[in-house]
Amino acid sequence: MVTIYDIARKIGCASSTVSKALNNSKEVSDSRKAEILAVAKEMGYVPNANARRLATKQSWSIGILFSEDLNIGLEHHFFSGILQAFKTYVEDLGYEVTFVSKKVGTQSLTYLEWCKYKDIDGILIVTVDVNDENLNELRQSGIPIVTVDSGLINVPTVISDNFQGTRMVVEYLMSRGAKRIAHIAGPMRSFSAMERLEAFKTVLGQYEMDASMVVEAYNYDFNSGRNALMAMFRAFDEVPDAIYAASDDIALGVIIALKELGYKVPEDISVVGFDNIELTRYTSPSLTTVAQDKVRIGTEAAKRLIAQINKEADAGQAVINRVPVELIVRESTK
Amino acid sequence: MVTIYDIARKIGCASSTVSKALNNSKEVSDSRKAEILAVAKEMGYVPNANARRLATKQSWSIGILFSEDLNIGLEHHFFSGILQAFKTYVEDLGYEVTFVSKKVGTQSLTYLEWCKYKDIDGILIVTVDVNDENLNELRQSGIPIVTVDSGLINVPTVISDNFQGTRMVVEYLMSRGAKRIAHIAGPMRSFSAMERLEAFKTVLGQYEMDASMVVEAYNYDFNSGRNALMAMFRAFDEVPDAIYAASDDIALGVIIALKELGYKVPEDISVVGFDNIELTRYTSPSLTTVAQDKVRIGTEAAKRLIAQINKEADAGQAVINRVPVELIVRESTK
DNA sequence: TTGTAAGCGTTATCAC
DNA sequence: GTGATAACGCTTACAA
């Protein structure tokens, strides 16, 4: 490994001069600077991150937190899409992106301990178990945090506009003649699920429609949707003419279940999802759904985190930043 | 920030003793150790990663490399699935996972420079532009590397068994009466695409069937599949009775295109994909496909990388590790 | 403009 | 067993 001392020795100057030259300080003459840069390159010098960070106390790194316990993580393409956008944005600014881990070598650490250990600049919370004790201390630590879709209180949050989306769905369904709209909600430990349910009730209420036909799915996936629909048919005597599902996967489960029960989608019952997963274009029927803007969510989250790191005014406010969504009408609604 | 000096001062011992106690050295009496641990806990001590790494030259961190240029990255759920499995495995061993970046603060770095900068222990290459110059120096640097699905020469590789998968597809189609099998290949800059094409030719050759009906898709996605199918119908006079597509997305594009051309799947033409993307179960027709085992690929890759880091015998051999695949028969084949 | 030296928080090598 | 003390590679006052 080549160090600044090696360079200094070769040139015959002080290591501090090398350091300054490498950091493009104006306290070094141009000729010296040029010489040092040339030798550094020739010798294949690369700075050492740990030494630099130890000296500067600037880590230039950002942690990504997935609570593994929920079984929605990196694999869920909504989150990997957000992460991709986030990563692209912050890496371009020179930050490195590391997954927060609960283990270091052989020791177990809490999230906060890990952040201190790494001297992290900020943290993106992607998915989260709201009941996780470790999150509280993290939140109170003063470390810059931003979260997407998690619903942590007192944390800056970037999330799809579930209210706008739900309103668009309901109003669209009504405009197409729906009289009895049901909702298959997502699991209530998810903040978005709660928001969508709340919005559902609010909007129907505004139109003086009954909003009681609601079943909570156990999870966001296909099977939960299927099961929830079956539960709905057991619990209610009526049959809805439209179903608003809290996710595309749930919606697909609902559609399959409806088919099994002998209903036609959309002729008998319209179904709407949420997410706009790529393949919903190709299912049969293709799915009417609310498109979430992953890129924008990821980018906004990055901006808000960076603003906090840079201590910009108001940056740390626990404001919820709602990203617009779009209704994509396809074949599953009549 | 609490340091070992703070602890030492409070207790009235040397910092080196604290360090030893914290590292569970047997050079410290049990009573001292207990005392130190207690005080450390009480004071909220967390070690500093940078200082430790600087002193030990052990980084306990692994880099993940996505070549962004190809537009398949984190978002592609095949890769995010592999990454998830990989991450889980190595984090459990105490490694941290960081994305390799080309930028640090304001400086641009090559991959190798970044690895040196971070003093990384090893690197997982996920997607890669084979022509990327920076990869060569990385490969030759001696840093432990493992790759999935990339086809880098001289690098330990973990990949689905494309030969086995292709054989299963072809033999299955033949067993169902197919006489004329076409292949929509993936882009030839992808190693897997090349392997699947090669396997296709080999297997058909073994059965003395013609393997000339091949079109290369521009990419792995839906639209490329659709376009490739159209190109195939322009280029060949014959109509195949079965089409083997190099990915599920391509297969779905093919199916849509076939529908547009008035063909029925599977009645007129059978279609098979590759990947087993979750939603292919719910398309219409649901897709017969080859399931790749993401978890196993990720885990195997992790094991091989760790073995290299630990300098186990033969660990660095540039062996290709083929992970078994499974044929999932659904409705798109008759 | 350049050099000296202290310090960042650990670990590791010696003495004691 | 315990304690000084020198690394680790870099940045940064402060001197020269």
Protein model, in words:
The structure is a homodimer of 334-residue chains. Chain A is α/β, with parallel strands linked by helices. The first copy, chain A, has three domains: 4-56, Orthogonal Bundle (434 Repressor (Amino-terminal Domain)); 61-158 and 294-323, Rossmann fold (3-Layer(aba) Sandwich); 162-292, 3-Layer(aba) Sandwich (Rossmann fold). Helices cover 43% and strands 17% of the residues of chain A. In chain A, strands 2-1-5-6-7-13 form a six-stranded parallel β-sheet, covered by helices on one side. Chain A has a six-stranded mixed β-sheet with strand order 9-8-10-11-12-14, sandwiched between helices. In chain A, strand 10, helix 11 and strand 11 (270-275) form a beta-alpha-beta unit. In chain A, helix 1 (4-11) packs across helix 3, helix 2 crosses helix 3 and helix 10 (222-235) packs across helix 11. The radius of gyration of chain A is 26 Å and the shape is elongated. The relative contact order of chain A is 0.12. At the A-B interface, helix 4, helix 5, strand 2, strand 3 and helix 6 of A face helix 4, helix 5, strand 2, strand 3 and helix 6 of B. The first copy, chain A, binds a DNA duplex (16 and 16 nucleotides) through helix 2 and helix 4.
Quick summary of this structure?
2 copies of one chain form a homodimer. Chain A is 43% helix and 17% strand. Chain A is an alpha/beta fold and 334 residues long.
Number of helices of chain A: 12
**Largest interface, C-beta within 8 A:** A-B, 55 and 55 residues
Reported by name, the CATH topology of the largest domain in chain A is Rossmann fold
Total E-strand runs of chain A: 14
> What does the radius of gyration of chain A come to?
26 Å
Shape of chain A: elongated
User: Gap between N and C termini of chain A, in Å?
Assistant: 68 Å
Mean of residue pLDDT values of chain A: 92
What topology, given as strand order, has the largest sheet of chain A?
2-1-5-6-7-13
Largest sheet of chain A: 6 strands, parallel
The CATH architecture classification of the largest domain in chain A is 3-Layer(aba) Sandwich
Class based on secondary structure composition and strand pairing of chain A: alpha/beta
Question: H/E order of the elements of chain A?
Answer: HHHHEHEEEHEHEEHEHEHEHEEHEE
Oligomer classification: homodimer
User: Residue ranges of chain A: pLDDT <50 for 5 or more in a row?
Assistant: none
Q: Give the name of the CATH superfamily of the largest domain in chain A.
A: Response regulator
